[in-house]
Amino acid sequence: MALPNGPVATSSEVEAVLFDLVDVYDRAYEAAAAELSLSPAQACVLGRLDERRGMGALAEELGCDASNITQIVVRLEALGLVTREPDPRDRRGRLVARTTRGDEINQRFATAFTFARTAVARLSAAEQDQLTALLRKALG
Amino acid sequence: MALPNGPVATSSEVEAVLFDLVDVYDRAYEAAAAELSLSPAQACVLGRLDERRGMGALAEELGCDASNITQIVVRLEALGLVTREPDPRDRRGRLVARTTRGDEINQRFATAFTFARTAVARLSAAEQDQLTALLRKALG
DNA sequence: AATGATGCTTGATTCGCTCAAGTAATTCGG
DNA sequence: CCGAATTACTTGAGCGAATCAAGCATCATT
C-alpha cells in the first residue's frame, strides 16, 4: 500500500480531517483496484477511456510522460482490457479503446470503489451542497 | 507525477469536487517533496519522526511492510536526514531519529506544502468548523 | 536450555515514473 | 515538391516504492 501523503504536523483540526479524507480516499481507490488485480494507475487509465483516444491525449490529461502511458497501456492490452489501433487520420497515432472485457472490469471497479459514494451518502442533500460549496471555495 | 486516483465516472457534483480535492492535494504534496529532492514516501517517513521510534512502529502506522520502511530509511540515512541506532532496551530493534539536517528539511517541507494551509485560509473560522463537521460526518 | 516469536534486513520481482534516444509520419517553408 | 522541423509514440536505462519469501539475531517462554 502506498504511504500516506501527510501530515508533517497538522496545525489545525481542519487540516487533520482533510488529510484523513485524502488518505482514506487514496487507500480505498487502491483497494478497489486491487480487488480486480489492477494497479491504481491501470484503473485510472481504464477509467479515462469512455471514448477511444490517443496516447498523447491521455498523457496530457493525466499530467505525465507519454512513455509512462505506453507502459500502462501495454499492460492493459496484455490483460485484454484495451486495444490499440492505428489512427487512420494520422498514422503516427494510436487510438486506445476499452474492450468489452475492459468495459466490464471498469464497471466492476466503479462498483468496488464505494468510498466517495458512501461518504456522500452520509450527508443530506443540503449538506452535500454545503460541502461542495465549501470545498470549491477552499480550492480557490 | 503520480496518476490521479479517479474518477471512473463522477456521478454527482460532490464526488467530482471531492476527487478534485484529493488530486490537487496529492500533487501538491508530491511537488513540495520534489522541491527538497525527496520522494513523497521519504517526506512522509521524515514527517513521522518528531520522536525517535522503531522501524516496526513506523511500518504499522503507515500500513506497509517493514522491508519497505527499511529501504526508505536507508535512503534517508544516506541523505544524512536520519540516524538509525540500536535500541538499548531490545537489541533487535533500531531506533530511527531525525538529524538536525533532517529537522531542517522537514521544516522546509512543512513550509513548502502550502496546499492544506492556503485552502483552509480561504475559509472563515465558521466555515472551517462547518467543513470539519461535514467531512467528519462523511467519513463516518 | 530448547522452542518459538519478534524486529529487522536481504534478495528477487513487479510496477510506476522519468529522461534520453530513436523511429515513423506529418507539417511547413522555400 | 523537397528537405527540415515537429509531432506521436516506443524503447531502453535507471531509480524508487512496494510486496513476498528467507534469513539472522535477539528476546521470551516454558
General description of the model:
Two copies of one chain form a homodimer. The first copy, chain A, is mostly helical and 140 residues long. Chain A has a single domain (13-139), classed as Orthogonal Bundle (Arc Repressor Mutant, subunit A), CATH 1.10.10.10. Helix content of chain A is 62%, strand content 9%. The first copy, chain A, contains seven helices and three strands. Chain A has helices at residues 13-35, 40-47, 55-62, 66-78, 100-112, 115-121, 125-139; strands at 53-54, 82-86, 94-98. A three-stranded antiparallel beta sheet of chain A has the order 1-3-2. In chain A, a hairpin with a 7-residue loop joins strand 2 and strand 3. The longest helix of chain A is centred in the N-terminal third of the chain and has 23 residues, at 13-35. The model of chain A has no long low-confidence stretch (mean pLDDT 96). Chain A binds a DNA duplex (30 and 30 nucleotides) through helix 2, helix 3 and helix 4. Chains A, B: GO terms for molecular function: DNA binding; DNA-binding transcription factor activity. Chains A, B: This is DNA-binding MarR family transcriptional regulator. Chains A, B: Residues 11-140 form the HTH marR-type domain. Chains A, B: One of its GO terms (biological process) is response to stress. Chains A, B: Keywords: DNA-binding.
